[in-house]
TrEMBL record:
InterPro entries: AA-permease/SLC12A_dom, Amino_acid_permease_CS. This is Amino acid permease. It is a multi-pass membrane protein. It comes from Bifidobacterium adolescentis. Belongs to the amino acid-polyamine-organocation (APC) superfamily. Amino acid transporter (AAT) (TC 2.A.3.1) family.
Amino acid sequence: MAQSQEKPDVEQGGLERKMETRHLTMISLGGVIGTGLFLSSGYTIHQAGPLGAIIAYAIGSLLVYFIMLSLGELSVAMPYAGSFHLYAKRFIGPGTAFTIAVLYWLNWAVALASEFTAAGLLMQRWFPHSPAWIWSAAFIVVVFLLNILSVRLYGESEFWFASIKVFAIIAFIVIGLLAMFGAIPIAGYSHAPMFENFYNDGWLPNGVLPIFSTLLTVVFAFSGTEVVGVAAGETKDPSKAIPKAVHTTVLRLAIFFIGSIAVMAALIPWRKSGVDTSPFVLVFQSIGMPFAGDIMNFVVLTAVLSAANSGLYVCSRMVWSLAQEGMIPRKLAKTNFHGVPVFAVMFSMAGSLLALLSSVVAASTVYLALVAVSGLATLVVWASVSVCHLRFRHQWLAQGHTVGELKYRAPGYPFVPIAAIVMCVGALVLVICDPSQRSTLLYMIPFVALCYTGYYASAAWRAKRHGVQDDAQNALQSVPQDVSQPHREDGQED
């Protein structure tokens, strides 16, 4: 039986397929390239050394590549908006699906709150006497309008936000390479530095262990690439757009991240790298670029707005998807005449503002717990994608299909999803071994248990109220016998 054929411009539930390949690629890039690269990359170099930092980012790039291959196959075969939890519902279970959706929503809601705070602080560089909250409020309004008006407007704005970041990184790499090879003079060197910072103190000055201790930070720096899966349901011709976005995104990320780290490590002695000053600013200042601080402040501000823009988009689509499934009130799935889930957008913005409020009134309790839980959400989502890929391919073949019938098939199956699962589990083990990260599990485990308990308690209550069977059994029966068929969910209004 052929794979599902969706209407070209309309997704089930009222969303519209308005985004093109260029939007999808830049959205994925924009979700990743942010303050983690512009500000925190110096920490990785300082801890792991020049070569160690490159190795850590190379491992992170490989994991992202594996995840994106699996997600590409799933998203082309089943191009649903809010894809992660729908795949989990089909191939793992409804309780797990609900938990994954809540974790992923919380991850972006907390990140969204942090971005609004950062935007206000960044504006104070130019307007030092103005309160940060005024600028934060202004950016909240801008991001809300970009998401509430139309998905096309969101896609276009994110395209240009991401383009600015990409241009800044390319300029950094080109200028840095010229400085490395002596074409541009650089402060502190009377000669071309080349790669001497890599071997002056030994190839791994702090040993091998820091590579693994910083790997967790690197993995989280790559979080956001999976936004391609969330946007699949609003993408024109997903069978062509998604594979192209997957491969171009991963290739560009590897070049941008590893290239930037290599230039930083070559031009800045690893002992001077850290988180106090952006390594981008240090390099630009060392070659005498005027207004280097202001230029990078603008770029980082753009990165913050881009992350906030993507964050609200992802949050709203997760809410919309949960509402479509009947896991939360279905009113949150309603869309306007532009195909935007307005109630889901408003709900997500409200959740983010509550997280922002908690960072002010309960920073050491509520907000700390939210940050801890959201920090591991990416690993959970990535692992679930790999598990779903394994089970999808198994069901596909068991139903008499051939691999050749897939419009896009991930190369290297089953090694790719299995390796990704092992790497995700390995990253979680690093959390346990790292005393500074171990406390996150104290919040994560009870929260996950609460999600499962809440889901099954709610399912039992709905079953009793509406006189229907257990929601878990309902979910299993809602999975088509042929995994190639479109997913539809009929149910009672909550």
